[in-house]
Design goal:
69% of the residues lie in helices and 0% in strands. It is an all-alpha fold. The termini are far apart.
């Protein structure tokens, strides 16, 4: 009897733990039944609350106050998608108005101090056209190599290089300030500088304009074709768009090498 009495407290602990575990499992199964069978009469919703599966068609009434699909989202401070779109459109209008105002101020700067205006404009233009061409080259590398490394940013790259037509339009004001920027566009400076005279076959206004127009034309045509084939990859399982992308990306990469606008030249007659 003594050994059995000595073991009784330990056995009692095991019995108590087993009873507690069975009770917990039973309670878990009861909660599981309430959540899995929400349509059964007499079984209330479980811890899922209003997000549980309801015994009715998959429709959700709209909130009459703000037009969103869930009144609970309104009560918790959620913002409907229509408000976000309206906010974006409002920001676009504000940005457009600010752009018009800044263009007007730039025009005043052009009239007041042409040299400072064209130097600043060239610096800003090279920055933004550099972003467009950078996206262009990044997209070309992805088209050539493939893989998933650039899938997340491919659409961003494409949106970036599709601004090249806008960059071509923004290049036009620079044509009116070549004499303020480059010494080879100043006849008096060229006449006094033997180095500029030797390079006059390449460094001249007509050649500069023709080269820039040719490069922009090539970039825009290639960008439009690449964008078209890239979108075809999303709607078709055919490998032809991928082959076209890789076939054109190689020559396009070579076309981007060495192309670009010269920075502001030295205004002194000697170098």
């Amino acid at each position: 009897m003594a050994p059995s009495a000595a073991l009784l407290p330990g056995n009692l602990d095991l019995v108590i733990l087993k009873a507690i575990s069975l009770g917990a499992v039973h309670g878990y199964r009861a909660r599981l039944r309430r959540d899995v069978f929400p349509g059964v009469a007499g079984i209330a919703g479980g811890p899922l609350g209003h997000c549980r599966v309801h015994p009715r068609p998959a429709t959700q009434p709209a909130c009459h106050d703000c037009g969103c699909a869930d009144e609970h989202a309104c009560a918790t401070g959620g913002r409907p998608m229509n408000d976000i779109v309206a906010l974006i459109n409002r920001l676009r209008r504000c940005a457009f108005g600010a752009g018009i105002l800044l263009c007007a101020l730039a025009g005043l700067g052009w009239a007041w101090h042409p040299h400072a205006f064209f130097v600043s404009y060239l610096f800003s233009y090279l920055f933004w056209v550099g972003l467009s061409l950078g996206c262009f080259i990044a997209a070309l590398v992805h088209y050539l190599t493939g893989g998933r490394w650039g899938a997340a940013g491919l659409r961003i790259f494409e949106a970036g290089y599709m601004t090249l037509p806008l960059m071509a339009v923004l290049f036009v004001p620079l044509l009116f300030g070549l004499r303020e920027l480059y010494p080879w566009a100043q006849p008096d400076t060229v006449a006094a500088d033997k180095i500029l005279q030797r390079n006059v076959a390449y460094e001249n206004t007509s050649g500069f304009v023709l080269r820039t127009a040719l490069f922009f034309l090539l970039w825009i045509v290639i960008a439009v074709r690449l964008r078209k084939w890239s979108l075809q990859q999303d709607v078709s399982a055919d490998v032809a768009p991928t082959i076209k992308l890789r076939s054109l990306s190689g020559p396009a990469t070579n076309c981007c090498r060495g192309a670009g606008l010269p920075s502001r030249g030295n205004r002194s007659p000697t170098r």
